[in-house]
Specification:
By secondary structure, the chain is α/β, with parallel strands linked by helices. It has 14 helices and 22 strands. Strand 1, helix 1 and strand 2 form a beta-alpha-beta unit. Helix 3 (49-68) crosses helix 6 (181-192). The relative contact order is 0.11.
C-alpha cells in the first residue's frame, strides 16, 4: 500500500466527479481524482454537452442570418461558413473549459492521477502500477454510447455522437438512428449546415421521456425545418459500404426498407461505464440495467465505496451528477444533504429549446394522480412578437387537491433558461397559485409561466 493515504479518491472527472472532489476539499478532505483521459471534464466537457452546444450556437447564428434577419429589415449578402473554423471554435471552447477544471483541481489542492482506475480492494485503487490508499472511494465513471444488434460502429460512416461532433465535411445525407436528445441536437447542427437529415425511431414518437404533447409539437416544428422522421422503424442493420452508410429497417407495417446516406449517426442511448473498474470482481451490486446499486447515502453494498452520476440509476444529466456528487460528499462528512430528484430540470438545446421538470402528463395518468393543467402559448406575448419567435408554449401540471406543482414543460425560445424558475418552484414545493401571484416582468417570455399558472385555475388574462 502507498504510504500516502487520501480521505477520498474520486474515479472520473466529469461534472459529477470534479464537483464532488472540490466539495470534498472544501470540507477538509485530502482528495485525489483519477481520470483515464488526457483532459479533465469527462464526456460532458470533452465530447458531450459543451462541444455540441458550441456547434448548436454557431449553426443557429448561421441559420438566423440566412433566414431570420430579413424579417427584421436587415439585409446581408451571400452567407457562407468555414467548417474548419467552426470546428476549431468548438475545440477552443472545450479546451478553455477543461483547462478551467484543471485549474480548479490545483486551486483546491486536489491531486490529479492520470490513468485507468481499478478497484483492487476496499480502501485501495490501482492506477497502472500505482497503489492509492484511501478511506473512501467515489465512482463517477460516467457512461458510453450504446448500439444495436446488426449495427457496425467504427470508421467514418457509421458513428456515435463523438465522431459526429467533428465531421470533416458536411454530410449530403445524414441518417440518424434514434430520435432522442443527442440525435436531435446533432441532427439540427448538420441540417443547418446543409445536410439532409432522416431520423429513424423505433417508437411511435420522438423524444422518449418528454411530455407527449410537447414532443408532438416539437416534431411538427422539426419537420417544418426540414427534418424527416420515420417512426415505428426497427433498424436491423447499419453498415459502411464504400463511401456510404447503408441502413436496413422494418417499418411498422412490416415492410423491409433500405436507406443510404453518406453518414449514419447511431444515437440510441448510453449505458453506465464500468469496464476495467473491477466492480464485478469486488462484488459491487448492479441493477437490471447494469448500473451500480446505491443506498440513500450513495454508498454501494461494499462499505466505503460510493457512486454517483450516469453510473447509477436516474437521468443521465450533468447537473444531476453534480448535485449527487455534492450530496454524497456532504453525507460522508455527516451533513444533512439531499437531492430533490423531481426538481431536476432537463433541456433539449434544439431550436426551439425544450425543457421540463417533474412529471409528464403521461406519468400522472399512469400513476392515477388527479391533476389540473394550465397551458399558455408564447404567440400572444409582446416579447415573443418582438423577438420574432412566437412558437411554443408553457404547460404546468398541478395537484388537483393541493395545487402543488407536479410538472412543468416548456417548448420555445430560451426554454432552457425559463425552466430554472420552475425548477426552483418545485424545489420549494410551490403551488400553481404561487406562480400566478408572482409578478413577472413585462415584456418577457417568462410572462407565459404566470399565464399558464393562471390558466390552471381557468383565469388566464391574455388567453384567447
Amino acid at each position: 500500500m502507498a504510504s500516502d493515504t487520501f480521505d477520498l479518491v474520486v474515479i472520473g472527472s466529469g461534472p459529477g466527479g470534479y464537483v464532488a472532489a472540490i466539495r470534498a476539499a472544501q470540507l477538509g478532505m485530502k482528495t485525489a481524482i483519477v481520470e483515464k483521459d488526457a483532459t479533465l471534464g469527462g464526456t460532458c466537457l470533452n465530447v458531450g454537452c459543451i462541444p455540441s452546444k458550441a456547434l448548436l450556437e454557431t449553426t443557429h447564428l448561421l441559420e438566423q442570418t440566412q433566414k431570420d434577419l430579413g424579417r427584421h429589415g436587415i439585409r446581408v449578402g451571400e452567407v457562407q461558413f468555414d467548417l474548419a473554423k467552426i470546428l476549431k471554435r468548438k475545440d477552443d471552447v472545450v479546451r478553455q473549459l477543461t483547462g478551467g477544471v484543471a485549474f480548479l483541481m490545483k486551486k483546491n489542492g486536489i491531486e490529479v492521477i492520470q490513468g485507468l482506475a481499478r478497484l483492487s480492494q476496499p480502501g485501495e485503487v490501482m492506477v497502472g502500477d500505482r497503489s492509492v490508499a484511501t478511506k473512501r472511494i467515489l465512482i463517477a465513471s460516467g457512461s458510453v454510447p450504446v448500439s444495436l444488434p446488426g449495427v457496425e460502429l467504427g470508421g467514418t460512416r457509421v458513428v456515435t455522437s463523438t465522431e459526429a461532433l467533428s465531421f470533416s465535411e458536411v454530410p449530403k445525407h445524414l441518417v440518424m438512428i434514434g430520435a432522442g436528445v443527442i440525435g436531435l441536437e446533432l441532427g439540427s447542427v448538420w441540417r443547418r449546415l446543409g445536410a439532409k437529415v432522416t431520423v429513424l425511431e423505433t417508437l411511435e414518437r420522438i423524444l422518449p421521456g418528454i411530455d407527449g404533447e410537447v414532443a408532438t409539437a416539437a416534431q411538427r416544428l422539426f419537420e417544418r425545418q426540414g427534418m424527416k422522421f420515420t417512426l415505428g422503424a426497427r433498424v436491423t442493420s447499419a453498415i459502411a459500404a464504400g463511401d456510404h452508410a447503408v441502413v436496413t429497417f422494418t417499418e411498422k407495417s412490416g415492410e423491409a426498407k433500405t436507406l443510404e446516406g453518406d453518414r449514419c449517426l447511431v444515437a440510441v442511448g448510453r449505458r453506465a461505464f464500468t469496464e476495467g473498474l473491477g466492480a464485478k470482481e469486488l462484488g459491487l451490486a448492479v441493477d437490471a440495467k447494469g448500473r451500480l446499486a446505491v443506498d440513500e447515502h450513495f454508498q454501494t453494498n461494499v462499505p466505503g465505496i460510493f457512486a454517483i452520476g450516469d453510473v447509477i440509476a436516474g437521468p443521465m444529466l450533468a447537473h444531476k451528477a453534480s448535485e449527487e456528487g455534492v450530496a454524497a460528499v456532504e453525507r460522508m462528512a455527516g451533513l444533512a444533504a439531499h437531492v430533490t430528484y423531481e426538481a431536476i430540470p432537463n433541456v433539449v438545446y434544439t431550436a426551439p429549446e425544450i425543457a421540463s421538470v417533474g412529471k409528464t402528463e403521461e406519468e400522472l395518468h399512469e400513476s392515477g394522480v388527479a391533476y389540473r393543467k394550465g397551458s399558455f402559448p408564447f404567440a400572444p406575448l409582446g416579447r415573443a412578437k418582438a423577438l420574432g419567435h412566437p412558437d411554443g408554449f408553457v404547460k404546468l401540471l398541478a395537484d388537483q387537491k393541493t395545487d402543488r406543482l407536479l410538472g412543468a414543460h416548456v417548448i420555445g425560445w430560451h426554454a432552457g433558461d425559463l425552466i430554472a424558475e420552475l425548477a426552483v418552484a418545485m424545489e420549494l414545493g410551490s403551488s400553481a397559485e404561487d406562480l400566478a401571484r408572482s409578478s413577472h416582468a413585462h415584456p418577457t417570455m417568462a410572462e407565459a409561466i404566470k399565464e399558464a399558472a393562471l390558466a390552471a385555475d381557468g383565469r388566464a388574462i391574455h388567453g384567447a
